[in-house]
Amino acid sequence: MDEHYLKELLLRFKEGRLTLEKVLQQLKDLPFEDLGYAKIDHHRALRKGFPEVVYCPGKTIEQIKTIFSSLNEKNKNILLTRASKSIYTELKKIDPQLQFNAQAKIIYIEKKPRIKVGKVLIICGGTADIPIAEEAALTAELMGANVERIFDVGVAGIHRLLNYKEQIFEANVIVAIAGMEGALASVIAGLAACPIIAIPTSVGYGANFHGISALLTMLNSCAPNVAVVNIDNGFGGGLMAALINKQREQLIEKQKKE
Questions:
Q1: Is-contact 173 198, C-beta < 8 A?
Q2: Which of 18, 33, 182, 255 is the most exposed place for a label (fewest CB within 10 A)?
Q3: Hey, how many other C-beta atoms are within 10 angstroms of the C-beta on 170?
Q4: pLDDT per residue as tens digits for the range 176-229
Q5: Which of 133, 257, 243 is nearest to 198 (CA)?
Q6: Among candidate residues 36, 63, 67, the one with its CA nearest the CA of residue 53
Q7: How far is CA 255 from CA 47, 96, 258, in A?
Q8: CATH topology of domain 117-250
C-alpha cells in the first residue's frame, strides 16, 4: 500500500465517499496479507518507498497472478523480475497497462511515474552482459533515477571506455557489469570518485565457473570504492544504485537550502 493509495483512502473517508467499515476492510491487510503460500508485504511501500518486488522463478502462474492482483489493488507501480513472455501474457489480461522488457526479463507497471533525479551510469563490458545491465537500468529507473547506459566497453578494448570519461566523472553512482575475469569494475573505479556497484555475470568460458571468477576479481579489487552484489543480480545492483543516487540528491537539496 503506497502513500498515494493511503492518502486517497483517507480523503475519500473524510469526504464521506467511503464508510468507516470500508476503510477498516482496506486497512485490515496491514502490515501484510496472508495468501498461505505468500505473505504480501503491503507496508513495504510506506517503509521503503517502493512496493514488494515479485521474483517469478519457482512460482506457479496461478501464484504469480494472485500475488500480482493483490499488489496491483493497492499500489501504482509494480515490478516483477526474471519473468517470461508467457507470464506477461497472463498478467496483461488482469491489467492491460502492464509492460514487458524481454531483454531484462522484467514485467512492470508505472501508473504514477516518479520524477527522475540524479544520475546513475550503467556500464557493461560486453554485448552478452546487456540483459543484466538492462535489468539494473530498468530497476533504477523505476526507483526514480535518471539512468544513462554505456554498453560494450570492456577491457579488451579499453579505449572505448575512455571515450566516456565525462559521463563517468559526472555520475552519482556507477553500476559496472562484466563477466569473463570481471576487471571492468576496477578500471572504472580507478577513474571515478563515486561509489561503484559491481555486478559479476555468468558470461565466460569454462574457467569463469559461471561467474565465480568475475565475482572474486571484483571482491578483490584494489579500488576502495567498489561494492559487489551477487552473480547476475541486475535487480540488486540497480536498486542499490538508485538508493545511493537518491541519498546524494537529497543531500544536494539540503545543502542548497542551508
A1: no
A2: 255
A3: 12
A4: 999 999 999 999 999 999 999 999 999 999 999 999 999 999 999 999 999 999
A5: 133
A6: 67
A7: 25, 43, 5
A8: Rossmann fold (3.40.50)
One-letter amino acid at 112 equals: K
C-beta atoms surrounding 164 within 10 Å: 16
Q: Please name which of 222, 170, 220, 230 lies closest in space to residue 197, comparing C-alpha atoms.
A: 230
Task: Give the C-alpha separation, 242 to 81, whole Å.
Answer: 17
Cα 100 to Cα 71: distance, rounded to the nearest angstrom: 17
Cell of 152: 560494450
What residue has cell string 531483454?
103
pLDDT one-digit tens code per residue, 52-93: 889 999 999 999 999 999 888 877 889 999 999 999 999 999
> Whole-prediction pTM value?
0.84
Q: What Rg, from alpha-carbon coordinates, does the chain have? A: 20
Q: Which three cell numbers stand for residue 226?
A: 567498489
Residue 158 CA to residue 60 CA, distance in Å, equals 44
Q: Which residues contact 214 (CB under 8 A, 6 or more apart)?
A: 178, 179, 180, 181, 182, 200, 201, 204, 208, 231
Where are the domains positioned within the chain?
3-110, 117-250
As given in the structure block, the three cell numbers for residue 4 are: 498515494
Q: Which three cell numbers stand for residue 157?
A: 578494448
